[in-house]
Design goal:
The chain has 5 domains: 100 residues, Immunoglobulin-like, CATH 2.60.40.3450; 241 residues, Methylamine Dehydrogenase, Chain H; 73 residues, Immunoglobulin-like (Sandwich); 89 residues; 318 residues, YVTN repeat-like/Quinoprotein amine dehydrogenase (Methylamine Dehydrogenase, Chain H), CATH 2.130.10. Strands 37, 42, 43, 45, 46, 47, 48 and 49 form an 8-stranded mixed beta sheet that branches. A 5-stranded mixed beta sheet has the order 4-11-10-6-8, with no helix packed on it. A hairpin with a 5-residue loop joins β48 and β49. It is built from 2 helices and 87 strands.
Length: 995
């Protein structure tokens, strides 16, 4: 019987092709089938489809088996491919046969990428191959977060090894911050006016601080008690000096760099035009005798040895000071900075015992001995700049650290072999303009002030090799600002340098989807978390506060809210909104907030803001703030206090306010009269009407210290004109004219001698007892104010770059003048006793104000600093006023009144007004204050859009408890956010009120 044709059946299983050969139909028993057609193959199988290994942990075994097919009896070579960075298999290759499995050991290095991905286990035998898929997860442990937010702006620091404390100067908050060297918690915030440079005295117990105010301070490190040492040095052109940089010597002398206020030393904040010395034993300031320059030459920084016996600085020459001999030696700048000092000296340092000096230029470092002879040089990567950079020896003197900026990096140089070794990144985004290597310690840690906090860098870590072009590359990980609920994870888009590991708040984040997404870990801690990017080489960068968990209310822009009238305020926090469109639920004092706006983000980072209208409340009621969004809920207790419902008396034509403390009356100036208000009854009395002969245009008035004369000043075009009124109405008002080519009157003050001072040009004194004028020297100012008793007179030049302030003797008219080049004054206030005055810089094209506080000797005492969560959002109003006790200064803005501590320059509180105040036009020809206080300092009278607004505070200004504003908030972009969110809210409110 003929054989049937064979039938072939093909079945595909995985990558194995099995061919079955069969015969169909019948036949005799004598028929023999042909031998089968064989197709040898194999499959690869694993004992588990997934495996998890930990960074630096024990290896995990993966057993691999081979299943033979079609008579396969060969040996299979098995390897694993597509492993992530830092993960290895041992052995590299396995030889496996059917029935005899092999095992790989999978391990992850300490720097392995934290990732979840699929890897391939591949078997090859001749021209045959098969594979299996293995899901690999690499886990990491928690790491320390290297960035510690403090708030404000940190510029200099000193690390005390004995106390394990880092002391940093923070002019952004007017304080010295004391930080633990173990956990970097803030141990204390010590009020200090505009602190800048810092050093420890040779006693090991006392810090000396240079300030931008006209004083230096010492601080006892154990008690934190401060002692001020005022000075009033002046530079060329009479600009006041401040001392931003200090170096304390073993003989008790302290070297100080003197910088002319407002005239930066070649844009170097630490530099100056002078070198002074302060003798701590005699408390005297002097220019040291050091050669031809006598201390009067450009100097950018100071450096001293750890034993306090040696100091160096570059000026007209390069100077070395010995405290043992109290003498200087010098060498030319070109000799210490070869070749020929081509790029100038950029920085310098001296080692612990003063035996080795390092001088950095743009391209190299030169090492010198105590004879200022060159020991050796080394080229350095990139151009080393002078501004915002630092040069320091390590504690043991073996390394020299060069701090580069933008991006900030620390280059290390071997000071023995004079060779550049490499660098480490210290980057924290967002960077600011004051980034600085503050200090180092004996453990090899570097402390960097940046982004309102302290970044810790392990200077003993493996260094990154310098590149030929001097670039300091840093690892990057593009994690978008993210808000998420507590105890929830989130998967976000992701881009990064190859092999970068990501940590959020110190917790490892897993890279997914082939490196295009990231799994942000869950957290039970509400608030901000930093994102840390660590490259496979160990180099690190940080994005500050890029992720937040849950809902945290950081603060609101005001601490005093009206019990009615519903003004708008700004609310700041984290997690206020989970999506771009979400409007959170906001409560104030348990009541729903009105007209909650759209949430805006400040970015970079995740701080959010929203403008809301305040609901009505009860006078004296504490107002907590609550926020609920899709991310959860958060509260801030006692965020504000309601003050008594304000009163608005409708009125038009009001120009100026004066409160008569003797009669308890309020005087309001109009064009042809002075209206009189009884504060007790809120009834207007009979006005002081001007005589018919008073034909001038009037815009300012003053009350004599004894209260017997109220003088209104104006001009007729050809003459100055003064109306003299008797507040007791016993004497008929009189009109006094002064003819001639005269300017209009902008500001007047009345002295204790019953003399009216009129600023010129020309300046005049009007004797109210004789009605006679006396010409005076031109004082140079446009606004003049007096103390309550008329014994002190102060003037300020407005809207000019000199920043001039004047003190005028009311009996002799002798003038003392001080100039501050960076200030442009717009207003002036004097404390009741005249011991202090405040000049205000608040141009109407900017929100908020800068206040310079001065004493009676024109010594600059301090400036004001805003807390991060209460930035101003409106322009200035004239009428800055001290409280009756002089403890507080009121500065009105369009929508609020700021209450400043006149000693610390910090914000006591912000009072929201029921309607917009009278914003002045710029420039002003009349400097008339539109705010007045009663004699107790509890009731404020201020001109507003519709008339006279009367505000009664819950307590007197001198007894008011300062608000504890949130200090540790990164506020780089809050101001820009305010302009968007609050402007739209105010436009809406104004439309509603007009309708």
């Amino acid at each position: 019987m003929p054989l049937k044709k064979p039938v072939l059946h093909q079945v595909t299983i995985g990558v194995v092709l099995i061919v079955l050969v069969g015969c169909g139909g019948g036949g005799s028993n004598n028929d023999q089938p042909p031998p089968p057609l064989l197709n040898p193959s194999f499959t690869v199988s694993l004992t588990s489809s997934s495996i998890t290994v930990a960074q630096g942990g024990a290896s995990q075994g993966v057993q691999v088996s081979v299943l033979a097919q079609g008579g396969f009896d060969g040996t299979v070579s098995v390897t694993v491919s597509s492993l992530p960075s830092g993960v290895t298999c041992s052995p590299v290759s396995l030889s496996v046969t059917a029935g005899s499995p092999g095992t790989f050991s999978v391990s992850a290095s300490n720097a392995a990428q934290i990732v979840q991905k699929s890897v391939s286990v591949e078997g090859v035998s001749g021209n045959l191959n098969a594979s299996a898929s293995l899901q690999l997860t690499v886990t990491g442990s928690q790491v320390p977060d290297p960035f510690h937010l403090v708030g404000g702006v940190i510029v200099h620091g000193y690390y005390d090894e004995m106390r394990q404390l880092l002391f940093v100067t923070n002019p952004g908050l007017n304080e010295l911050d004391v930080i633990s060297g173990q956990d970097f918690s803030i141990k204390a915030r010590v009020p200090v006016p505009q602190p800048w440079g810092i050093d420890q005295m040779a006693d090991g117990n006392t810090l000396v601080i240079g300030t931008e105010a006209q004083e230096i301070l010492t601080v006892n490190e154990d008690t934190l008690q401060t002692t001020a040492y005022p000075y009033s040095a002046k530079g060329i052109g009479s600009f006041a000096l401040f001392f931003p940089n200090v170096a304390a010597m073993a003989n008790g002398k302290v070297f100080l760099i003197g910088q002319e206020q407002g005239i930066d030393s070649s844009d170097i904040l630490d530099g100056g035009q002078y070198v002074y010395e302060w003798n701590s034993a005699t408390n005297t300031f002097s220019l040291p005798s050091m050669g031809a320059s006598n201390g009067s030459s450009e100097t950018d920084s100071l450096a001293r040895s750890a034993d306090h016996k040696w100091a160096v600085f570059a000026s007209d020459q390069f100077y070395l000071y010995s405290s043992d001999s109290d003498s200087f030696s010098a060498a030319s700048l070109t000799s210490v900075n070869p070749p020929s000092g081509e790029f100038g000296v950029r920085g310098y340092a001296i080692n612990g015992d003063g035996t080795k000096i390092a001088v950095a230029s743009a391209t190299q470092v030169t090492f010198l001995n105590q004879s200022l002879a060159v020991l050796g040089t080394t080229p350095i990567p990139g151009a080393f700049q002078t501004a915002r950079t630092a040069v320091q020896f390590s504690r043991d003197g073996s390394r020299l650290y060069l701090q580069y900026d933008l991006p900030i990096a620390i280059e290390e140089i071997d000071s023995g072999s004079f060779s550049a070794l490499g660098y480490l990144s210290a980057l924290v985004n967002p960077e600011n303009n004051e980034e600085r290597l503050l200090a180092t310690d004996s453990q090899g840690r570097g402390f960097v002030g940046i982004a309102g906090g302290v970044r810790v860098v392990d200077l003993t870590a493996p260094l990154i090799a310098n590149t030929a072009n001097g670039d300091f590359s840093v690892p990057s990980c593009g994690v978008p600002p993210t808000t998420l609920s507590l105890n929830k994870t989130a998967q976000v888009t992701f881009s990064a340098t190859s092999g970068v590991n990501v940590y959020v708040g110190g917790q490892p984040a897993t890279v997914l989807s082939g490196g295009t997404s990231l799994n942000i870990p869950a957290s039970s801690n509400p608030g901000l978390a930093d994102v840390e990017c660590i490259g496979s080489d160990g180099n690190t960068s940080v994005v500050a506060g890029d992720v937040s968990y849950g809902v945290t209310v950081a603060g609101i822009s005001a601490s005093l809210l009206p019990a009615s009238n519903n003004p708008s305020i700004d609310l700041f926090g984290y997690g206020l909104s989970g999506t771009q469109e979400e409007i959170p639920t906001v409560t104030i004092a348990g009541q729903p907030a009105l007209n909650v706006g759209a949430v805006d983000s400040a970015g970079p980072g995740v701080i959010q803001g929203v403008a809301v209208q305040v609901p009505n409340g009860s006078s004296g009621e504490q107002a907590g703030v609550g926020v609920t969004s899709s991310l959860g809920s958060g509260t801030l207790t006692a965020a504000a206090t309601y003050y008594e419902s304000p009163t608005i008396l409708p009125a038009t034509g009001l120009l100026q306010l004066i409160f008569d403390t003797r009669r308890n009356l309020l005087y309001t100036l109009k064009a042809t009269e002075v209206d009189v208000l009884n504060p007790g009854t809120l009834q207007w009395g009979a006005p002081f009407t001007f005589p018919a002969s008073a034909t001038g245009t009037f815009g300012t008035m003053a009350l004599s210290p004894d209260g017997r004369k109220l003088v209104v000043a104006g001009s007729t075009g050809s003459a100055l004109q003064f109306v003299v009124l008797d507040p007791d109405r016993v004497v008929t008002p009189s009109v006094i004219n002064r003819s001639g080519n005269l300017n209009s009157v902008g500001s007047i003050a009345i002295t204790e001698f019953n003399t009216v001072i009129i600023l010129g040009p020309p300046s005049l004194a009007l004797d109210l007892s004789t009605s006679q004028f006396t010409p005076l020297p031109y004082f140079g100012g446009q606004v003049i104010r007096t103390s309550a008793d008329g014994s002190r007179l102060y003037a300020a030049a407005l809207n000019v770059s000199s920043g001039e302030v004047d003190s005028i003797d009311p009996s002799t008219y002798q003038v003392q003048t001080q100039t501050f080049g960076e200030f442009f004054w717009t207003d002036l206030a004097v404390s009741p006793d005249g011991s202090q005055f405040a000049a205000v810089n608040a141009p109407p094209y900017l929100a908020g104000d800068i206040v310079g506080f001065f004493d009676s000797s024109l010594r600059y005492l301090n400036t004001n600093v805003y807390p991060a969560v209460s930035p101003p959002d409106d322009t200035s109003v004239l009428g800055a006023t001290y409280s009756p006790g002089g403890k507080a200064l009121l500065v009105p803005l369009g929508d609020s009144i700021e209450i400043w501590n006149s000693q610390s320059g910090t914000l006591i509180g912000r009072l929201m007004t029921p309607e917009e105040l009278r914003v002045f036009a710029y420039p002003e020809s009349v400097i008339a204050p539109v705010l007045a206080l009663d004699s107790t300092g509890q009731t404020i009278y201020v001109l507003s859009q519709s008339g006279l607004t009367i505000l009664k505070l819950p307590a007197t200004l001198d007894e008011m408890t300062p608000v504890q504003w949130q200090g540790t908030v990164n506020s780089n972009s809050i101001q820009a956010m305010l302009k968007r969110s609050t402007a739209s809210m105010k436009t809406s409110l104004r439309r509603n009120r007009q309708n």
